[in-house]
Amino acid sequence: MEKDRENTNQGLPEEILRQLKRPPRLEVPAFDAAWLQTEPQHKFKDDSGAGKILSFPGNAILSAAAAVLLAVGVFFAYPFDGGQGPESLEIFGSATGAGISLQGATTDDGWNLGVLKPGNTIRTGDQSLDMMASNGVILRIYPSSTVKIEESQGQLHLRQEQGTLLAEVRKKEGGKAELPRLKISTPHTDVLVTGTIFQVTVTEDETELYLDQGTLSMAETRIPPGNVARKGTDSALEVSPPALTPETATELDELRNSTDLLARKWIPEMKRLDQVREEKEISQMYGQSLEKIILKDGRILQGVVAAQEGDRLMLHTTSGVVVVRRSNVQEIVYEN
Predict the structure, then answer these.
(1) Burial zone of 99 (CB within 10 Å; 0-12 exposed, 13-18 middle, 19+ buried)
(2) Right CATH number for 86-251 from 2.40.10.10, 3.40.50.620, 1.10.3210.10, 2.60.120.1440?
(3) Structurally, what CATH architecture does the domain formed by 41-76+267-336 represent?
(4) Which helix (H) or strand (E) element contains residue 20?
(5) pLDDT tens, 228-277?
(6) Which residues, 6 or more positions from 209, have their beta carbon under 8 angstroms from its beta carbon?
(7) What is the pLDDT of residues 65-115, one digit of tens each?
């Protein structure tokens, strides 16, 4: 067993090997009944010595020394918890320009930003709406579209009467086959999505879908990536390569950036953290010194990597809470 442990540790830096050989120092205080009335705190402290520099070459995995800081319990940028019921699915939206028409118990013709709920009917007019849900769905509803949010058990169910939307559904990493996270019902067919990037347009005569990548079914038929599927009210499903491949990359980047900003403004925990901007207060909150986060565009942020979700990092900085992509980070310089 000892030989197996040595083989496992081969290739680790000398500093880490020295730490592994040290016996753990556990100081367990006597039980205090007052603990039952206090909030839990998790502090990470490393007294091993000098400061270090973390780099991000290529697709390298974020170093544990920078990532394992504090489980703040927030959801941000592509969050999902598997949604076990309608009460666990949170939906947020952000409209462009002067706002859209949002119908529910009342009608708001200038709705711009906030919470969306089942029963809401969205009419975009000449605006667009970016939406995110807590089960890992983000989407953009384009102008001249009508979409209703339906009640559903653990999935986002949209009834698209007309118009166009672009969606990205993040599939749970390492998970087994799961139920669709997104269902789109149109006058002509149903679309069930587990994890994918796609665009769907609804007209009076038909529903047309372009699958960029991933997995979905339309009219109970699996659609191959890179194909267009069409279904009319009384016609059979047609699947074929597109005459001209739709350009989704730029729109998708804009959608991701928009929902990053949406998460920052509207997720309650992020709003709370955003109010803490003094260096001393941030340091006390996380139990460590602030880091220098150097971005590839030349910006230098002073703060802490509070959490990570996929390729996004939530940075709690002296300028507020910022969500950036890991690929945009050049280095993280931190002091013990």
Answers:
(1) middle
(2) 2.60.120.1440
(3) Roll (2.30)
(4) helix 14-21
(5) 999 998 899 999 999 888 888 899 999 998 888 787 766 666 667 778 88
(6) 191, 198, 199, 200, 201, 216, 218, 223, 228, 229, 230
(7) 233 222 233 333 334 444 444 446 888 888 887 778 999 877 778 787 778
